[in-house]
Amino acid sequence: MAETTAGPADAGLSPGPPQLTVDDSGRATITLNRPQQLNSLHREDLLALQAHILQVAADARVRVLVITGKGRAFCAGFNLNELKQTDAAGQDPQRFERTVDALEALGVPTIARLNGGVYGGATDLALACDFRIGVQGMALRMPAVRLGLHYYPSGLQRFVSRLGLATAKRLFMLGQTQSDADLLRMGYLDALLPPESLDLHINTLVTELQAGAPLAMAGMKLSLNEIAQDRFDPARIRERQARCDASDDLQVGLRAQAARTAPVFTGR
């Protein structure tokens, strides 16, 4: 299947680790930045991603995070050439898993802008996002079983909880390439767009997410993820509910609804 290119607006970046930008609207964008290697992730890239995720979590301006790739692929997963290399900073076999888990744990909503193919560990990187918007012509493949690799626990849990056991078995045990239509049908993609419509759809989704109250958005995202992970704790969810009930944002939202105006939330 031919790959379709839908490059990000910052396509002029020099190749290297992922880049983070934040615009005036509070939209953060992480761009995977090794197009000649199909954006495969090196150890230094994982460290950069972890740092960017921490920066986004600490920046009160950020309301939405979009993660995308430069070039014709979203990401080819972890750079397999580094599997046998010694990490001079100390071997951390769970570094990829920790990076993806940190992305999923972000309080702000996240969107995977899938500008092209998604392979290996990148399939979980995208799945850890709240929404996945794909470009027509993209494909996905999880080749772990063909390489002799056993996937890490939280990734397996994400696939089963989000897509179901039968779909997870097909993806992991058969290792077959999935077409864009397959991905939409199985629920991996929330939307599938032609290249010329991808960014318009992403921008609309970003605007809709930015319209939500940050405390309610973060609380419900975390609660829903905990339920999916079989970590349902009614007391913890009640605490988040009470925090929102006592927030300034709730009063702002109620006044705006009564006045039929757009609320301006502050996250307090």
Secondary-structure element order, N to C? EEHEEHEEHEEHHHEHEHHHH
Q: How are the strands ordered across the major sheet?
A: 1-2-3-5-7-10
CATH level-1 class of the largest domain: Alpha Beta
Task: Please give the oligomerization state of what you see.
Answer: single chain
> What is the total tally of β strands?
10
Overall geometry comes to globular
Detailed description of the structure:
By secondary structure, the protein is an alpha/beta fold. It has two domains: 19-210, Alpha-Beta Complex (2-enoyl-CoA Hydratase, Chain A, domain 1), CATH 3.90.226.10; 214-259, no CATH class. It is built from eleven helices and ten strands. The strands form two sheets. It has a six-stranded mixed β-sheet with strand order 1-2-3-5-7-10, sandwiched between helices. A four-stranded mixed β-sheet has the order 4-6-8-9. Strand 2, helix 1 and strand 3 form a beta-alpha-beta unit. The longest helix has 16 residues, at 43-58. The radius of gyration is 19 Å and the shape is globular. Residues 1-5 have low confidence and may be disordered.
